[in-house]
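Follow-up to my earlier ticket, as requested here are the two runs.
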Amino acid sequence: MKKTIIQFLILLLILSSCGSESKKKRGLDSTLFKYAAVIRWSNFDAAVGFLKPGDKNILPSGFDLERLKQFKVSSYQESPITPGHKENVIHQAVEIQLYNIHNNKTRTIIDNQIWEFDTEHEIWFLTSGIPKL
């Protein structure tokens, strides 16, 4: 009887730990999907909402945001995510093709994104900033 209870508790512990990792992975997938949609629609103002709060080093200036508004995104190609240097950090390189609405030229940039999971709020934040031109 005692052995059965211990086995049940171990099984419960294993299942609960799997659930939190699964929730974290689903949260990452959802966040990356939403961020990609925001960038694909060239909604750079909304992209700021994905940035880690309180990190003033990655907040774009008003000038930077206005400069980005002269571009429309014509392609957003994600590479597979890779683990970061810490446990709750991932990296993703994204090739973004931009179309300048003023001179009709395109340019391609690589946006090296770093995402960090906030365990307190259980949400993923972008810590590398919005795409840089």
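Run two:
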Amino acid sequence: MKLLNANCSRTMSRTARVLIALALACALLGAGIASASDTGVEKEKPLIDWGQAYIEGTGMAVAPEGTTGAQAKALARRGALVDLQRNMLEFVCGVQIDSRTTMDDFMAEDMVRSEVHGLIRNVEMLKGEWDGECYTVTGRIKTEQLRQIVDLVVTLVR
């Protein structure tokens, strides 16, 4: 009986690892199939271009109140870079959404929180535009780097 339990838990453990690897591969490589060049409209969400092997996205930010000139532009640019990285991370890893509703005197109050955890590296900046109020950046990450992550996960599962 002990041998049966050991084999069963080993099989379940391996099955669980394979399912996790498959889910990760689907999330990383199947998250989007549209090409950025196929649409003439700027998208908030990043898009995968399979032909050129990259994920491209945008980020936007405004300068904090009370800032002007070069300081406003620099802070807005930094905010746009962070927004770009967050958008790409959300696209690759997904977002966890938590919500809570409370009632007080028949008045509902909803609280929704989104959270993303992960690491994004080697985002290549393509362009940045400052219109005097808002900074917009466009960047990309090569899908080869994501494939290396999937290969590592599959190797660990084996």
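The only thing I checked on run two: The beta strands are 47-49, 54-62, 96-104, 107-115, 124-130, 134-142. Let me know what else you need.
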